[in-house]
């Protein structure tokens, strides 16, 4: 079976990534090509080595002949994927004649140009060495798994882990956390020093088919992503809203806090993602606590009777995802585009302001998995400017947390940031808004009046 269809699909994906329309993963998952694993792998590899192929095409004879080749339809991404297969991948033997012949006929020229690039330090070997060095410098984020409080208690989890011969390590104050996680053996489990329901396993531990994970007694969830629900810790029986909830990691965490007497309304406007969330939430034992609302949160009327009991909220809106480790951004440079960040920031601020209109709301966590100030401190500043009579940022969030918001903002110390090198998690940002009580509001107004009179 020729692989032409795969090569054309990769070319589509690379084209969409290059024109900044999509992240590589979304482009792959939205593509009709069935074998996503193959498509993802080859697309990643093609994008990764793009600078080599651009270097080859600096040779005008090569670029003219390849771009003029009818079978290639002038498509640079298609030429890139074919060059990848020819020089680095499995060869072009599984392509049809029309795709492989032009490249094979230029074999000598391609090899010569690659040699010329090598002489300039831009050849294949140098590129490979560069990737190896980067890999060595990469921080390995440990495997975090949250004890699902809806299925069992922390004590039951500990007891069962012990019975199953896991060695439980109780985190020491004398050994740095970084050392503890890197020394973790495959049969050991460490308790997270900040979030009591969070366990840490060695990356090399083979857990995917483990019953605790399969049956969602433990839920894989990065530590940073556990912060929003943990920081607002809604009490048992309370009512919450998760404005942008799918696939529902933070929703099921909220559900574990509020328990069977409570309720979480989980919004998502994407029907496919909302359905996935429904399934996962049910598997987590939160089916009766969570009400999945497929729709745009911005369209709800916060003053409607239905929302009068909501006291806690999480706003985890769409973001650039620039904090996520192992994205392709370092090769595609696609995340930090100013106009994209601007549009995201607008949506983020709108969602946040809308949620703050819920009349009985007490605490709200705003979070992104972005490292960009535009989506984080700038959004918070804009919202505080408009809502500061009723809302302020919670202070002293996790005093021991190593990384705070940008110091150039007066509220920077009230924000938590996460960074793989410092917090051993994905990059993340979170703040908690808390409602200013009436008494404090009056006091604040009085002080303002006195200041004005002075
Ligand atoms: C960052 S993801 C949420 C991840 C989720 N909180 C979790 O932890 O599993 C953002 C989600 O917001 C949804 N979304 C975007 N705009 C929305 C809106 N106006 N109303 C509701 N959901 C929205 C997207 O479909 C996407 O699933």
From TrEMBL:
Domain SAM-dependent MTase RsmB/NOP-type residues, every copy: 133-436
Protein name: SAM-dependent MTase RsmB/NOP-type domain-containing protein
Any Pfam family the entry gives: NSUN5_N
Binding site for S-adenosyl-L-methionine: 244-250, 268, 296, 316
Recorded family membership: Belongs to the class I-like SAM-binding methyltransferase superfamily. RsmB/NOP family.
Annotated transmembrane regions: none
Keyword Transmembrane tagged: no
Keywords: Methyltransferase, RNA-binding, S-adenosyl-L-methionine, Transferase
GO BP, sorted A to Z: rRNA base methylation
Source taxon at top rank: Eukaryota
């Amino acid at each position: 079976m020729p692989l032409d269809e795969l090569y054309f699909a990769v070319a589509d994906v690379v084209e969409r990534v290059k024109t900044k329309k999509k992240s590589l993963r979304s482009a792959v998952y939205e593509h009709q090509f069935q074998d996503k694993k193959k498509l993802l792998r080859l697309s990643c590899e093609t994008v990764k080595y793009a600078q080599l192929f651009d270097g080859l095409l600096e040779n005008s004879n090569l670029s003219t002949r390849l771009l003029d080749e009818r079978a290639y339809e002038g498509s640079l991404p298609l030429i890139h994927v074919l060059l990848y297969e020819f020089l680095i991948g499995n060869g072009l033997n599984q392509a049809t004649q029309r795709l492989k012949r032009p490249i094979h006929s230029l074999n000598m020229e391609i090899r010569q140009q690659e040699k010329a690039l090598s002489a300039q330090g831009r050849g294949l070997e140098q590129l490979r060495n560069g990737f190896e060095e980067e890999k060595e410098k990469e921080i390995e984020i440990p495997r975090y798994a949250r004890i699902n409080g809806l299925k069992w208690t922390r004590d039951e989890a500990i007891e069962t882990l012990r019975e199953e011969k896991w060695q439980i390590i109780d985190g020491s104050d004398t050994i740095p956390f970084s050392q503890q996680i890197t020394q973790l053996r495959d049969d050991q489990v460490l308790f997270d020093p900040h979030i009591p329901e969070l366990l840490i396993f060695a990356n090399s531990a083979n857990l995917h088919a483990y019953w605790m994970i399969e049956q969602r007694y433990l839920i894989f969830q990065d530590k940073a992503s556990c912060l929003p629900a943990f920081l607002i810790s809604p009490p048992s029986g309370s009512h919450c809203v998760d404005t942008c909830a799918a696939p529902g990691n933070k929703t099921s965490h909220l559900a574990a806090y509020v328990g069977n007497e409570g309720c979480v309304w989980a919004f998502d406007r994407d029907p496919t993602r909302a359905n996935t969330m429904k399934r996962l939430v049910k598997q987590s034992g939160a089916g009766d606590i969570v009400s999945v609302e497929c729709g745009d949160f911005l369209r709800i009327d916060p003053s409607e009777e239905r929302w009068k009991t909501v006291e806690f909220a999480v706003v985890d809106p769409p973001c650039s995802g620039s904090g996520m480790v192992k994205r392709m951004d370092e090769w595609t440079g696609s995340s930090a585009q100013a106009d994209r960040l601007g549009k995201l920031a607008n949506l983020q601020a709108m969602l946040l302001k809308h949620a703050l209109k819920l009349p009985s709301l007490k605490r709200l966590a705003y979070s992104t998995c972005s490292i960009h100030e535009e989506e984080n401190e700038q959004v918070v500043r804009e919202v505080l400017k408009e809502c500061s009579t009723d809302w302020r940022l919670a202070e002293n969030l996790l005093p021991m947390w190593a990384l705070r918001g940008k110091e150039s903002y007066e509220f920077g110390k009230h924000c938590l940031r996460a960074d793989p090198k410092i917090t051993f998690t994905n990059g993340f940002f979170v703040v908690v808004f808390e409602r200013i009580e009436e008494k404090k509001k009056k006091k604040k107004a009085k002080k303002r009046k006195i200041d004005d009179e002075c």
